Amino acid sequence: VTPFMRLARTHAASTASDAMVDAALAGTIFFEGATSDARERVLLYLLLTMAPFALVAPLIGPALDRATSGRRWIVIGTGVARSLLCLLMIGRTDTLLLYPAAFGVLVLQKGYGVARSAIVPGVVESDEELVEANSKLQLLSGLMGFVGAAPAALLFALFDSPDAPLALAVVGFATTAGLAVRIPGVAVAPISETPEERAELRSVGVLLAAGGMGLLRAIVGFLTVHFAFHFRESEQLVEFGVVAAVSVAGSLIGSVIAPRLRRIWPEEPMLISALLSTVAVGLFATTSGGAVGAALLGFAVGVANTAG
C-alpha cells in the first residue's frame, strides 16, 4: 500500500462522513425558517468559518510545516473532533447547542482540507504526479459524496430524524482518524524558507495562479448560495437537486480530464481555459436563463473548478 493510497483512503472516509453530516443537517440549518432569516444565518456561518484561518493560519502554519507529522496530526485530530461533535449533536438538533457544534464541524472540515492538501506533495514520487494525484482525490471526493449521502438520506427518511445519519457520521469520522494514523509522517517544510523561496512564493506567476483559483472558488460559493435561495423562494427544490447533481457530475469529469490535459498542456493554459470557459458558458446561461441555464453553468463551473 503506497503512502498516497493511505491518504486516499483517509480522504474517502472523511468526504463520505462530511456528506452524511450535510444530509443530516440540510433541513435543520440551511433551509430552516424564512428565506430572509436563512440568508443572514448562512452569511454569518460563512464569515465565522473563514475567521479562524485568517487569524490563526499565518501563526501556526509555519510551525506545523516544520514539525514532523504536524499536518498528519491535524488530519487525525480533526477526525476525532468531528466524531465527538457529531456525537454531541445526536438528540440535540432542536436545541441551541446544534449551532456551535455544527459550526465546529464546518471549521474542522476546512482545517482538514488545508492539512490534506499540504500532505499530498509528500506522498507522491515527483512534482509531475501532483496534478494526477489531486485529480484522483477530487474524483474520490465526488464519488464518496454520493456514497456517504445515500445511506444518510435513507436513514433520515426511515427514522424521520437526523440522529441516525449523525450516528453514522460518528463512525465515519472515527474511521477517518484511524486511517490517518497510517499516513507516513513527513515534515512539509523541515527548514525555514530562504529569501529566494519567499520571493518565488510572491512571484507574479504564483499570485496570478492563486488569484485565478480564488476567483473560481468564489464563483462556486456564489452560485451555490444564489441557486439555493433562488430555487428555495420559487419552491423548485427538485430543480435545485438537478442543478446540484449536474454540477457534481461536472466536477467528476473535471477530475478525469485534468491529468489527460496535463500530458499535452502546461498548467498555465489549463487554468486560463478554465476561466474562459466559465465566462463563455456564463454569458450563454445569462441569455437562456431558467433551470437549463443554471444546470449548464453549474456543469461548466464544476468542470472548470476541479480541472483548474
Q: What is the secondary structure topology, with strand pairs?
A:
Layout lengths: L2 H28 L4 H32 L3 H20 L8 H22 L10 H30 L3 H18 L14 H7 L2 H30 L3 H26 L4 H22 L1 H18 L1
Helix pairs in contact: 1-4, 1-5, 1-6, 2-4, 3-4, 3-6, 5-6, 5-9, 8-9, 8-10, 8-11, 9-11, 10-11
The computed structural class is mainly alpha
What proportion strand? under 5%
Tell me the radius of gyration.
20 Å
Poorly predicted sequence stretches spanning 5 or more consecutive residues: none
Q: In one word, what is the shape?
A: globular
- Quick one: how many beta strands? 0
Question: Gap between N and C termini, in Å?
Answer: 29 Å
State the major sheet.
none
Q: Taking all residues together, what is the mean pLDDT?
A: 84
Helix content: over 70%
Q: How many helix segments?
A: 11
Helix and strand pattern:
HHHHHHHHHHH
Characterise the protein shown here.
This protein is mainly alpha-helical and 308 residues long. Helices cover 82% and strands 0% of the residues. The protein has 11 helices and no strands. α1 packs antiparallel against α4, α2 crosses α4 (98-119) and α8 packs antiparallel against α9 (237-262). It starts with a helix and ends with a helix. The mean pLDDT is 84.
Note the main attributes of this structure.
308 residues, mainly alpha, 82% helix, globular
Summarize the structure.
The chain is an all-alpha fold and 308 residues long.
